[in-house]
Design a protein that fits this description.
Cytochrome p450; five-stranded mixed beta sheet; two-stranded antiparallel sheet; 46% helix; binds protoporphyrin IX containing FE
Length: 400
C-alpha cells in the first residue's frame, strides 16, 4: 500500500494509487469489451501511431448505444479527431498557447492567487479546492476565452454533471443504461453549448482580443469553422482548461502533505518547484486514461488486437510502470529525466501544458510563502473524486 492510501481514504476506482499492479501490460476485458493497456512502452507505441490507434472512438462504439447526430455531435472536438483534420484545427489555437503568450500571464496568475488566498484568510478557514485550486484555473481560462469568470459556479455545475459520475467504463452496457447515462450528461452539455453559442454569436458581431473571437474568425482552408465546431472547441477549452489543473494543484499539495521531507526540500530550494509539479503529474496523473480505437489488426505487448477495437490507454499506470520508473510508488521530484505521460504524448500532446505548469508553479510558490507548513487538517476528511478517469481531490482542508 502506498503512503497516500494509508493516510487518506482513497476510493477503489483509483486502483493505481493502491500500490503496484500485477498482470499483463495489455489485457482484454470480456465484461466491458475493452482492451486495457497499462504499460509505458505500450502507451508510447499507441500515442506515436495515430494511423493505427485512432482518436475517433465513436467509430467503434455500437450504434445502438450512441445518441442520434441531431441530439449530440462531437464535431470540432479536437481530441477525437485524426490527421489530417486534426493538424488544421490544432493550428487554429496553438498560437494562443505559445510560451511567450503564456509567460505574459504570470503577473495576472500571481495577482489572482493572492486575491483568492486573501479572501480565504478573511473567511477564517482554508479548503484548498474551493478556495484556490478550482477558482484559479477557471478564472484564467475564462479570461483567455473571453467569457465572464463570474459565471464560474455554472461552469462547475456543468463540469460536475459531466464528469463526477461513478460510471463504469464499458462498451457492453445495456442500451437502457447507456441512455440513462447519456441523459444525465445531456443537460449540462446542452446548457454549456447554448451558453457558449450565445457568447460566440456576440463575438461574431463584436470581436475582441480573446480566444472565442479567434475561433469565430478563424479560417481552415479558407472557410470559417461551422458554429457547432466553434462551440465544441470552446467547450473543450473551458473544460480542459480548468478541471485537470484544479486536480494538479490539489494533488501537488496532497503529495507534499504525504511526503513532508519533500515539502522541506522544496521550501529550502524553490528552484525545484517545476520538478515537484512534474512528479505530481506522474505520481497522481490527473487525466488517468485516454480512449483510442484500432484501425487494423496490430500487435501490442504480448497481445494481438483485432481491427475496430476500443482501447483504454491508462496514463496513470504507465506513469508507474517499473520498466520505466525506478521505485514508481515513491513520490520523488528528484527523478531526472521524468518522462511522464501526464500531458499525453505525440500529436495530441496537451496544448495547455505550458499554462497548467505555470499555474502550478506560481500557486505552489505563493502557497509556500504564505503557509509556514502546508498540512491537511486532521479534523476534516480529504475527499477524492470517485471517477475512474480522473485522479484528484474534491476537498482538501488545510490547517491555516
Ligand atoms: C490534450 C492533460 C491542462 C487543453 C490533453 C491530453 C492530456 C491532457 C493527457 C491528451 C489527450 C489525448 O491524447 O487524447 C492535461 C492535464 C492538464 C491539462 C493533466 C493540467 C494539469 C490543459 C489546459 C488546457 C488544455 C490548461 C487549455 C487551456 C488541451 C487541449 C488538448 C489537450 C486543447 C487537445 C490537444 C489535441 O488533441 O491536439 N490534455 N491537460 N489542457 N489539452 Fe490538456
Amino acid at each position: 500500500m502506498s503512503d497516500i492510501v494509508e493516510r487518506y481514504d482513497v476510493p477503489k476506482q483509483l486502483f493505481w494509487l493502491h500500490g503496484p499492479r500485477s498482470g499483463p501490460a495489455v489485457e482484454y476485458e470480456a465484461r466491458t469489451g475493452l482492451w486495457n493497456v497499462y504499460g509505458y512502452p505500450e502507451l508510447i507505441e499507441i500515442l506515436g501511431d495515430p494511423a493505427t490507434f485512432s482518436s475517433d472512438t465513436m467509430r467503434v462504439t455500437p450504434k445502438e448505444l450512441l445518441p442520434s447526430e441531431d441530439e449530440f455531435s462531437l464535431q470540432g472536438f479536437i481530441t477525437q479527431i485524426d490527421p489530417p483534420e486534426h493538424g488544421r484545427l490544432r493550428k487554429l489555437v496553438s498560437s494562443a498557447f505559445t510560451r511567450k503568450v503564456v509567460a505574459d500571464l504570470e503577473p495576472r496568475i500571481a495577482e489572482l492567487t493572492h486575491e483568492l488566498l486573501d479572501a480565504a484568510r478573511e473567511r477564517g478557514r482554508f479548503e484548498l479546492v474551493t478556495d484556490l485550486a478550482y477558482p484559479l484555473p477557471v478564472i484564467v481560462i475564462a479570461e483567455l476565452l473571453g467569457v465572464p469568470s463570474s459565471d464560474r459556479a455554472l461552469f462547475k455545475e456543468w463540469a460536475d454533471g459531466l464528469f463526477e459520475r461513478d460510471a463504469e467504463i464499458s462498451l457492453k452496457q445495456s442500451v437502457e443504461q447507456s441512455k440513462a447515462e447519456f441523459e444525465a450528461t445531456m443537460k449540462p452539455w446542452n446548457e454549456m453549448s447554448a451558453y457558449l453559442a450565445a457568447h460566440a454569436a456576440e463575438r461574431r458581431r463584436h470581436p475582441r482580443a480573446d480566444l472565442l473571437s479567434r475561433l469565430v474568425e478563424a479560417k481552415v482552408d479558407g472557410e470559417r469553422l461551422p458554429d457547432d465546431q466553434v462551440v465544441n472547441f470552446a467547450i473543450l477549452l473551458l473544460l480542459a482548461g480548468h478541471i485537470t489543473t484544479t486536480m494538479l494543484l490539489g494533488n501537488t499539495v496532497l503529495c507534499l502533505d504525504a511526503f513532508p521531507e519533500q515539502q522541506d526540500k522544496v521550501r529550502a530550494d524553490r528552484s525545484s518547484i517545476p520538478a515537484v509539479i512534474e512528479e505530481s503529474l506522474r505520481f497522481m496523473t490527473p487525466f488517468a486514461l485516454l480512449g483510442r480505437s484500432t484501425t487494423r489488426e496490430t500487435r501490442l505487448g504480448d497481445a494481438t488486437i483485432p481491427a475496430d477495437q476500443m482501447l483504454v490507454a491508462w496514463l496513470s499506470t504507465a506513469n508507474r510502470d517499473p520498466r520505466q520508473f525506478a521505485d514508481p510508488d515513491l513520490f520523488d521530484p528528484g527523478r531526472d529525466p521524468n518522462p511522464h505521460l501526464g500531458f499525453g504524448r505525440g500529436i495530441h500532446f496537451c496544448l495547455g501544458a505550458p499554462l497548467a505548469r505555470l499555474e502550478g508553479r506560481i500557486a505552489l510558490d505563493i502557497l509556500l510563502d504564505r503557509f509556514a507548513t502546508l498540512r491537511t487538517d486532521p479534523e476534516e476528511a480529504v475527499q477524492f473524486i470517485p471517477s475512474p478517469s480522473l485522479t484528484g481531490v474534491r476537498r482538501l482542508p488545510l490547517i491555516q
